[in-house]
UniProtKB/TrEMBL annotation, chain A:
GO molecular function annotations of the record: ATP binding; ATP hydrolysis activity; transmembrane transporter activity
InterPro entries: AAA+_ATPase, ABC_transporter-like_ATP-bd, ABC_transporter-like_CS, ABC_transpr_LolD-like, MacB-like_ATP-bd, P-loop_NTPase
Designated name of the protein: Putative ABC transport system ATP-binding protein
PROSITE patterns the record matches: ABC_TRANSPORTER_1, ABC_TRANSPORTER_2
Residue ranges annotated for the ABC transporter domain, each copy included: 5-238
CDD domains: ABC_MJ0796_LolCDE_FtsE
Family: Belongs to the ABC transporter superfamily. Macrolide exporter (TC 3.A.1.122) family.
Organism: Chitinophaga polysaccharea
Assigned GO CC terms: membrane protein complex; plasma membrane
Keywords tagged on the record: ATP-binding, Nucleotide-binding, Transport
TrEMBL record, chain B:
Membrane topology listed for this record: Multi-pass membrane protein
Domain of life: Bacteria
Family from the record: Belongs to the ABC-4 integral membrane protein family. LolC/E subfamily.
Keyword Lipoprotein set for record: yes
Organism (species): Chitinophaga polysaccharea
Lineage of producing organism: Bacteria, Pseudomonadati, Bacteroidota, Chitinophagia, Chitinophagales
The protein, known as: ABC-type lipoprotein release transport system permease subunit
Length: 238, 404
């Protein structure tokens, strides 16, 4: 397997001048291609901060984050934006679609930013909407979609640029059970069939059950990193 | 896509966008209307100067205007006048005898410019007959008639048939006097000139001056304003010993006024747009504030700073340009109406208007020549207005914006 994410000795400290608070404390993390890993832990344990550091949205105070062997902590702000565009897919907690664009345009935007031709974009968008089973909702604005549907579009958007991996921050936090399972089905299917690497933060038991690797954070430290003993979808596979 | 997003973004809060677009339309309407009014006023002032004050061109003895000494008559005046009338571009040319003198009545005296005119030609040249508010034009059968301006008549308590005495020096330097009777009181759109200029028959003045059939001035009216320079050069070549001046040289204050008002017009437009810029900046800042998380998310997904700036710039441009056609159209409509029917400013006071040489009826004209300049000011306003909101947006760190 290839290492996609390699975080070395990463720390993030807030209030350094007054009372230092270690949001992330000396974390080492390796994620291989095709993993479906969950970052779990109580609120304030540093899950979102770690995802932000891995996603290049924030810089660590110490340590390095390598994505495909490139140290992204050394990149300038502009290069990081370009790097994120080409290499990382994001799914945020609240639905975060651009409300003035249709579902299709939201997905297409990323590809357009990448400079992909219209004909190629159209084929890819059709394919992604088939995968998230929303081909009939392509021309609908986010406000007319349910929360679950919006999150599925967000997943399609995250995959549009064919990223090295997808970071999802509490993707099911605002969804009802049916929508959450539906979203997880799509994510696990994409992971299994297209070997897309997923790293998501969650404290949702439904998501944890589907993860093949569970990394537990407490007070900014990884306290356990284990392959899941049994998961729902593995059970289903059996 | 950025273009589409910017366009749709401005309609997220319809009421707010419509209000700002309306204010831009109103501001533009106000600005263009002021420009149209100024253009109408300036055009009317220039027409007054040319058609009823100084004509397009004037010819004098080269020394005459230094001191208005009556001895400096126009040499070979009759020949010059004939040559002028032969120029195809010339519509009308008339001679005048001029001297400075003292007007005396039983109640007082005043310094005046005495113009000896050929009434029939002068009526066509300077519309003098149309300016008469009391009395009758010169009667060829009567002698020693004089036409005075309303302002001078008021000052000197002159009425129709009032008798007055004009005293001045003749060409030999001797003091001469002549008694005249007021046959008409005139009023033009230029009160200071009315107070200074009096008109008598050229024959009577020449007799007193002792210059017989000579004269001091030829006033020329052309068929087209555009030919002034051409005819001036032509005359200058033909009569190098004469002083040939265009209306701009004779009345430099009018030319200066036109140029100054042109600059003022742009300043007024700039002030209007500057005030509106605050509204635009405020609207855009609110829009950015409301979309902090969304913009942060866009940056997180890989939208670079150039694209974010472009989106905000386009939104500002759309807001600004949205109101522009409406403002321009209303201004054009209003200008077209008042250009046809006239705008009566007599409420502002005829005295005040005429003291600056303006009539009270103004025919505003759409400032087509200034529209490009106005559009540039509006575009500049949009650009400047977008800077602060754009900088605010560009400073957003996605990790902080996404937390909101």
């Amino acid at each position: 397997m290839n290492t996609v994410i390699d975080a070395h000795n990463v720390s993030k400290v807030y209030n350094r001048e007054t009372v230092p608070v270690y949001a992330i404390n000396n974390v080492h993390l390796h994620i291989e291609k095709g993993e479906f890993a969950a970052l779990v832990g109580p609120s304030g344990s540093g899950k979102t901060t770690l995802l932000n550091l891995i996603g290049g949205l924030d810089k660590p105070d110490t340590g390095s984050v390598f994505i495909n062997e490139l140290d992204i902590t050394k990149l300038s702000a502009n290069k990081l934006i370009d790097f994120r565009l080409k290499n990382i897919g994001f799914v945020f907690q609240s639905f975060n679609l651009i409300p003035v664009l249709t579902a299709k345009e939201n997905v297409e935007l990323i590809m357009q930013l990448q400079g992909i031709e219209k004909s190629v974009r159209d084929v890819r968008v059709q394919q992604l909407f088939r995968q998230i089973e929303m081909s009939d909702k392509m021309d609908v604005r986010p406000a007319q979609l349910s929360g679950g549907q919006q999150q599925r579009v967000a997943v399609a958007r995250a995959l549009a640029s064919r990223p090295k991996f997808v970071l999802a921050d509490e993707p099911t936090a605002n969804l009802d059970s049916k929508s959450a399972f539906n979203l997880l089905d799509i994510m696990t299917k994409l992971n299994k069939e297209e070997h897309i690497t997923f790293l998501f933060s969650t404290h949702d038991q439904r998501v944890i059950e589907r993860a093949r690797r569970i990394i537990t954070l407490v007070d900014g430290r990884i306290v356990s990193d284990t392959a899941a003993v049994s998961t729902r979808h593995e059970k289903a596979d059996v | 896509m950025i273009f589409i997003m910017a366009w749709r973004n401005i309609w997220r809060n319809k009421m707010r966008s419509i209000i700002i677009m309306s204010s831009i339309a109103i501001g533009l309407f106000a600005g263009i209307s002021v420009l149209a009014l100024y253009k109408g006023m300036m055009k009317s002032r220039i027409r007054n100067v040319i058609d009823s004050e100084v004509g397009h061109l004037q010819i004098h003895n080269i020394d005459f205007k230094k001191d208005y000494d009556p001895q400096f008559i126009l040499a070979n005046g009759a020949e010059v006048l004939k040559s002028v009338r032969d120029i195809p571009e010339v519509k009308l040319a008339a001679s005048r005898s001029i001297t400075m003198g003292m007007l005396a009545t039983p109640t007082g005296s005043a310094g005046v410019q005495i113009n000896g005119i050929s009434p029939d030609l002068e009526y066509q040249l300077s519309q003098l007959e149309k300016k008469i508010i009391q009395g009758k034009p010169f009667d060829p059968k009567k002698k020693n008639e004089i036409m005075v301006g309303r302002k001078l008549a008021q000052k000197m308590k002159l009425k129709l048939r009032s008798k007055l005495v004009l005293t001045f020096t003749d060409t030999s330097g001797n003091m001469v006097s002549g008694a005249f009777r007021v046959n008409a009181i005139y009023q033009s759109d230029n009160a200071p000139l009315d107070e200074k200029n009096i008109y008598v028959g050229i024959g009577e003045l020449n007799t007193l001056l002792g210059i017989q059939n000579a004269f001091h001035e030829i006033v020329i009216l052309l068929k087209r304003d555009a030919d002034v320079k051409k005819v001036q050069q032509q005359l200058q070549q033909k009569f190098p010993a004469c002083q040939i001046e265009s209306w701009k040289e004779i009345s430099p204050e009018t030319d200066l006024l036109v140029k100054t008002v042109d600059q003022y017009s742009y300043i007024i437009m700039f002030i209007i747009m500057f005030s509106l810029a605050f509204g635009i900046v405020n609207t855009m800042l609110m829009a950015i504030l409301e979309r902090t998380r969304e913009i942060g998310m866009m940056v997180a997904l890989g939208t670079n700073h150039v694209r974010i700036f472009l989106m905000i710039f386009l939104e500002t441009i759309f807001l600004t340009l949205g109101g522009m056609p409406v403002g321009l159209f209303i201004a054009w409509l209003a200008t077209a109406y008042f250009n046809k029917h006239g705008l009566d400013l007599s409420g502002m006071g005829r005295e005040m208007m005429s003291s600056f040489g303006f009539g009270t009826m103004i025919y505003p004209e759409f400032p087509t020549d200034k529209v490009i300049g106005v559009l540039l000011i509006v575009a500049g306003t949009a650009f400047v207005s977008c800077l602060l909101p754009a900088i605010k947006a560009l400073k957003l760190r996605p990790v902080e914006a996404l937390r909101r």
